[in-house]
Structure formats: C-alpha cells, structure tokens
Write a structure and sequence with these properties.
- By secondary structure, the chain is of the alpha/beta class.
- It has one domain: Lambda Exonuclease, Chain A, CATH 3.90.320.
- It has 8 helices and 8 strands; from the N terminus they run βααααβαββββαββαα.
- Strands 2-5-6-7-8 form a 5-stranded mixed beta sheet, sandwiched between helices.
- Helix 6 links the parallel strand 6 and strand 7.
- The longest helix is centred in the first third of the chain and has 20 residues.
Length: about 260
Amino acid sequence: MYFVKTRNLFDPKSGVPYNMSRSKIELFGECPRCFYMDCRMGLGRPSIPAFTLNSAVDTLLKNEFDLLRKKGESHELMVKYGIDAVPCNHPDLPLWRGDTPESRYVGVNFVHEKTNFRLCGMIDDVWKDKDGNHLMVDYKSTSTTKEISLDDQYKQAYKRQIEFYQYLFRHLGFKVSSTGYFVFANASKNRDKFDGKLEFNMSIISHQGDESWVEGKVQAAYDCLVSDKIPNPGPECEYCAYKRNSAISAAKWDKI
C-alpha cells in the first residue's frame, strides 16, 4: 500500500521531540531523498508484507529466554558459546521490547538535546554479565546451507543495529559491553518429509560494536530534515531509480 501519512511528520518549527527510530536512521543512510520524503512530506516507500514467520521465531525465542530470565539462569546456547551471562531481568524490558501498547514503535528511547529527536529502537533481548555489563542481543531467522557470518553486504545493517542499541543504552546511563550478539535460527532444508515442522540449527555470532558513527549520522539526518530543499537520492536507491526511469519511460511513451 502506498499512502500519505499525516502523523509523526517532522516540523522544523515544533518544540515537541520528534520520534526518530533506528530504522529511519538506517533509511537516511540508504537514501536521503526517501528519508526526507517519508519524515518531512509523509510519502513513505511502498510497504512490503510482514515477515510473520520471522516474527513467530522471535516470539518463541523471547518466551524461551524469559523462562530462564525469571530463574537467573543462562541458556544452554550461551553456555555452548562460552558466554558468561544471564538474560537481563530489568523491569523495563517489556517497554524496551515494545511488548506494551504504550511502548510500541518506541521501545528504548531518549531525547537527543542537539536535535530534539527522540531516538528510539525496539530490542529483542539484553543479557547481563557478572560485571554488570549489558549485552545487546538480536534474534535473526534464516535458511541457508552456507556458513552463517556477518560478512555479507546486507548484514552490515545488522551490525549498525546492534551499535545503535548500544548507543541508546549508554545514553540512558547503563553500563554496556561493546560486544553484542546475534542469535541465529537457521531452518534446515535437508529433511525427507516436511510433516508440518521446521527444524532449526541454532548459533550465536558476536560483534564488537563501534558506535562512533551514530552521533554524526543523527546530526546529518537533522540537517537534512530542517532544510527546505529535497536532497539527492542515494546512489544505489532502487526506489528512486525506479521512479526516475518510470518518468523517463512515460515521457517517451507519450510522444509515440
């Protein structure tokens, strides 16, 4: 569906903090024009169907880790990978994960004074080690026969996701480890029969985060939005390329 939204539009003259999510910052990095059209003018990219199977895996993993969270115990997968930590049992976890109606689409957040952005993001999980460090955790679902790594081009966004969460938690005053973790659920395709079941191979991959890019990117996003000039598209933006090529083709067609 393609529509013009009227809520959460950026107004340079407003004194109300503007909700700036992690995904919007990622959009700005992909294409300043799409970002501007979305946040300033309400013309977002066409929506895509929700990945409901991925959401189901996320929910089941949260339920599984929540059982251990109440007991203060480590998951067997954490033990396997030598991670000396337990799932964090902070009372604000439901808010951070967006589990409650009032925290949906906001999650972890704080107001960035220089830009008046309410920087926000919804996490999957937080673990806590024996030294009190908070470890950012994200669940990922896939189905591949290749060895899972973070080297693929599209997975660089995964790294930025963890780093943005580390940035948020540090600004909220938490002691945060630079090491974050991805819990991968890899669906096997090697079974002889489906039988209405998916079997997953579980693994954990660590990432040493570097949040130094976040502050500059947030400021650049603000500078983009306060301008009355629509920015150029990102060099690899398929959406802008499609719109441009469609307009050119339509113009040629009209002359036939």
